[in-house]
Amino acid sequence: MINTLHSRGCELITDLVSIPSQLRRIPITEVTIHPESDATFVLADLPPTLNILSLNYLVPSQPPLDLTHLCSLTYLSLDGIQGPLDGAKLPESLTELYLDSFFNQPVYNLPASVTKLSLKCMVYPHKIEHRPLQKIDIHDLSSLSSNTDCPHLRELIIERVNQKDISRITSSSFPVLEKLKTMLGSTELEEFNLSTLPASLRMLDISHYGQMDPQSLPNGITDLRISYDEGDTPLPNIPPNVQTLTLHGYHDKLDVSKLPQSLTSLELFSHKQQVDLEVFQQLPSLRCLAWFGSNQSDNINHTLTIKSNKSNLSLIIKTLQESETDNNNNSNQWIHYL
C-alpha cells in the first residue's frame, strides 16, 4: 500500500508492499520503505532512477538483499537488516551507507565508490576495513582494525574515546584527517593529551567529560568546538590559528585576552557570566559574535557601542530568558543586530 507519494522531482514512497507497474516508469529519485508486518516486496521492482533509499528491512521473510540494479543510487540507509552485508550486492554508484544501531554483522566487499559509512552499533564485534573511506561515523574506535591505515579518511566521528583511543589517531594512521568529532570520556582518572592528533586536523569538536591537558591542542586547528559538562573546567590554550570558536556550557568567566587574534567568529551557548562586550574589540579579526543564553540585561547598549567602532561586526545575542522561551516554543528566531 502506498501511503505517501510526493512529486517535486524527488519522490517518496512509504508503507510499500509492491510498486504498481505504472509507477515503475516514473523517474523516482528518493524512496523510504516501511513494510507491513506480514508483507513482502520485490526489491527488483525498485526503479533504477533512485538516488536515495531508506529501507526498514524488519521482516525476516524478506528475500536476500540485492540492489545491484539501482545504478543511480548514491545513499542507502538500512534498518533491521538480517545477517552479514555483502557489498557485492550493492550498486557501484553507492557513495554513502548508513547502518542502524542494531546491526552487528560483518560488512565486506563494499564497492570502492563507498566513501561515507555510518555504523551506529554500540558494541560492533567486527572490524571495518575499507581503504576508500573518507568519512566514518562509529560508536567505538575498536571497530577500526588497529593495523589498518585510513589513507583517505578526512572526517572521523566517534561517540566516545579514552586516552588509548586518542593515541591511535595519529598522522601515520590518518594522514589526511581534517575533522574529528568525539566525546572525551573515561571511567579512569586520566588527563587527555591531544598533541598527537594528526597535523592535518583543521576542525576539532569535543565534548568535555574528562580532564584535558590545556597545552595539548594541535596548532593546525582553525575550527574548535568544545562542549562542557556541569563541572567547572578551565578553558584550554586556544591554538593561534583558530578562526572559529564555539563553546557550549562554559561556566567560567571568559578571558578575552587569552583568545587568539586570528578569531573571526565566536559562539557562546549557555554562557551566563557577565562580560563587558566592549572587550571583544581586543580581537581585531572578529566579525561574528553569537551569544545564546546570556543573562545580561544591557546587551543593546553594548551592541551599539561595538557597532560604532567595528562596522563589519555581526552580533547575535540572546538573553537567558529569551533562549528558554524559544526552546519552549521551538522557535529559531534570534535577536540579530547588524
Commentary on this structure:
By secondary structure, this protein is mostly beta strands. The protein has a domain at about 245-338. Helix content is about 10%, strand content about 25%. The strands form three sheets. The chain has a 15-stranded mixed beta sheet with strand order 1-2-3-5-7-8-9-10-12-14-15-16-17-18-19. The chain has a two-stranded parallel ribbon with strand order 4-6. A two-stranded parallel sheet has the order 11-13.
- In terms of quaternary structure, the protein is single chain
Trace the largest sheet across and list its strands: 1-2-3-5-7-8-9-10-12-14-15-16-17-18-19
Secondary-structure class = mainly beta
Tell me the distance between the termini.
52 Å
Could you estimate the helical fraction of the residues in percent? Answer: under 10%
Apparent shape? elongated
List the main descriptive attributes of the protein structure presented here.
two-stranded parallel sheet; 8% helix; disordered N terminus; 338 residues
Brief digest:
By secondary structure, the protein is mainly beta. It has helices at 163-168, 299-309, 320-329; strands at residues 30-33, 52-56, 75-79, 85-86, 96-99, 107-108, 116-119, 135-138, 155-158, 179-184, 191-192, 203-208, 211-212, 223-228, 244-248, 265-269, 288-294, 314-319, 336-337.
